[in-house]
Amino acid sequence: MRYLLLMALATVLVCGGCDDDSRDHDPGADYCFQGDYYITSTSDVESLEPYDCINGTLAVGGAEFNSFNLQQIIWISGNLVIYDNPNLTNLDGLSSLDGLGGKLHVISNDTLTNLDGLSGITSVGWSLDISSNPNLANLDGLSGITSVGSFLIIRGNDIITNLDGLSDLTSVGGELYIYNNDTLPGCEVCDLLDQLTTGPTSIWVYDNLDDSCTPVPANCP
Fold it and tell me: How far from 202 is each of 150, 151, 172, 185, CA to CA, in Å?
């Protein structure tokens, strides 16, 4: 069931990727893996060593390891899904990743403490979903992202106290959902909304930490 759910979350959205004219990559070259790739073990990680590009979706789900090394991967044309990894503490193994065409979903990773390995990503072609990571302390690893093509979702992260990691975000093309983050003050959401120059199309914010900006966005500046 877990694997099937992971596959459902990892639906591919191809947005150019390896055949982008700004890159030297040829999507037919040996170093660009063609298709979706699912990682559940260290052997799956090792099998990707010859490639530095994925023309499809990369999903890491249900794995028992606490870290992994895919530092040769610089581009994913589809989605990146990190889901339901009980021992994963960091994403440092993705530190060379600088392009992502589809979705970025980091969901239900019980021991994940930071997103620093994602700091090279500057835009998300479709949705950005950071949800149900109870030990995630901040979003600082997302500081390079300036635009999200569709949905932005920050949900059910128990100890996040600010949205400083989204300080460079200026565009959200779809809906914004920020809710059930027990330690996140409403004023943080107000500040995020104030910095956006494009979007969102609608705003859903509730059940965060009550403060002077609650309710949001009614009392936002």
Answer: 11, 10, 10, 20
**pLDDT level of residue 99 (50, 70, 90 thresholds):** confident
- pLDDT, position 12: 31
pTM: 0.87
Q: What is the 3-state secondary structure (H, E, C) of 76-120?
A: ECCCEEEECCCCCCCCHHHCCCCEECCCEEEECCCCCCCCHHHCC
Relative to beta strand 80-83, strand 104-107 is parallel
* Model confidence pLDDT, tens digit, residues 24-51: 444 445 589 999 999 999 999 999 999 9
Pair 193, 166: CB distance under 8 Å:
no
- 220 — pLDDT class (breaks 50, 70, 90): confident
Q: Which residues neighbour 49 within 8 Å (Cβ) at sequence distance 6 or greater?
A: 72
Band of residue 156 on the pLDDT scale cut at 50, 70, 90? very high
Per the DSSP assignment, residues forming a β-bridge with 176 are 152, 203
Q: Give me the architecture of the 2-206 domain, per CATH.
A: Alpha-Beta Horseshoe (3.80)
The distance of Cα 84 from the centroid of its chain, to the nearest Å, equals 14
What is the Cα–Cα distance from 146 to 136, expressed in whole angstroms?
A: 21
Range 157-160, long-range pairs (CB < 8 A, 24+ positions): 157/130, 157/131, 157/132, 157/133, 157/181, 157/184, 158/134, 158/182, 158/183, 159/134, 159/135, 159/183, 160/136, 160/184
